[in-house]
Write a structure and sequence with these properties.
With 125 residues, the protein is mainly α. The protein is built from six helices and two strands, in the order E-H-H-H-H-E-H-H.
Length: 125
């Protein structure tokens, strides 16, 4: 069922006291070039940061590339930018433990685990 999707990100930067800011800047410029983003996507399985990287035939012909393309198309149509709660690290830890429990125990009671995770997260609110 189509619906809003969480969109996350990470960033590159140069620390104020970097010993080699010029080299760091050259690395960043090189990394974000479309051709290099396509290569990075092929190796990492991550979505490239530039739409122009999606023009690489990998995203049409390779099974992993097609999955990335599907995700990019889906997010383009349905994505929203989520606002994380102030205590996101706590929420993330609770959810991660719940998902681990569900995945590692094939007989797990998913509904009970989710309910317990919700109660744990909301206990101090």
């Amino acid at each position: 069922v189509p619906g809003p999707s969480y969109i996350g990100y990470w960033a590159l930067g140069i620390p104020k006291n970097s010993k080699n800011p010029e080299i760091a800047w050259e690395y960043i410029k090189n990394f974000v070039e479309a051709e290099n983003q396509a290569i990075y996507a092929k190796i990492s399985g991550e979505v490239p940061i530039r739409k122009s990287a999606m023009e690489d035939e990998f995203f049409e012909t390779d099974e992993n590339g097609q999955r990335i393309k599907w995700f990019v198309d889906y997010v383009s149509e349905n994505g929203t930018i989520g606002v994380a709660p102030v205590d996101f690290s706590n929420l993330s830890e609770i959810l991660s433990l719940a998902v681990q429990q569900i995945i590692t125990d094939e007989n797990s009671d998913v509904e009970a685990i989710v309910k317990q995770a919700c109660e744990e997260y909301n206990k101090d609110k």
